[in-house]
Amino acid sequence: MKKICRDRPSVCELEALLENNTGGTHHVDQVFPNLYLGDAVIASDKKKLKKIGITHILNAAHASWECTGESTEYGPDIQYYGITAEDCPKFNISVFLHPGARFIHQALNTANGKVLVHCVLGKSRSATLVLAYLMIYQHFSLVDAIRHVSKYRCIAPNRGFLQQLQQLEMELHHTLWGCYML
User: Could you read off the pLDDT tens digit of each residue along the chain, which spans 182 residues?
Assistant: First the structure.
């Protein structure tokens, strides 16, 4: 492990941390109690969603050419929230971090709530929203959120999303960080 002491880890250091993923690459993985991170394949498999018990879906690639999805497709048993985000480092996903985290939080606080957060591959856009949820509602640091999710699923938020998560962390904590073990 490499010890990093300064205000915050750089994007390059976060990317190096992501390279140490131990999680798999399945269509869906539970990354926190009743919180699932997945891809477009699982999102379109209504039988599997029912078997898992999914009650809420957050689609981070709503209305994009690679991933369609409408709330009406899932019926009344699944609440749907669609975010149209591009997996592009210049895309401003920060405007969706709090609303996405709030949707996840509310879903997990409903009776028997289980939420699937997905995009196309379940690695960048959706992972960014899950990391934001862990930071906002579970008070994880960005490094700890990455470590936690990476144990269960291989994730790879793009550089721009990592920078926006760094900004979120600064807003949440209003303080300087100490040492991190990367």
Answer: 444 444 678 999 999 999 988 888 899 999 999 999 999 999 999 999 999 999 999 999 986 545 555 555 888 889 999 999 999 999 999 999 999 999 999 999 999 999 999 999 999 999 999 999 999 999 999 999 999 999 999 999 999 999 999 999 999 986 444 455 55
Alpha helix (H) residue ranges in the chain: 11-18, 40-43, 46-52, 71-74, 94-108, 125-137, 142-152, 159-173
Residue among 88, 119, 154, 179 flagged as catalytic: 119
Active site residue 179: no
Q: Which domains does the chain have, with CATH numbers?
A: 3-181 (3.90.190.10)
Q: What is the pTM of this model?
A: 0.88
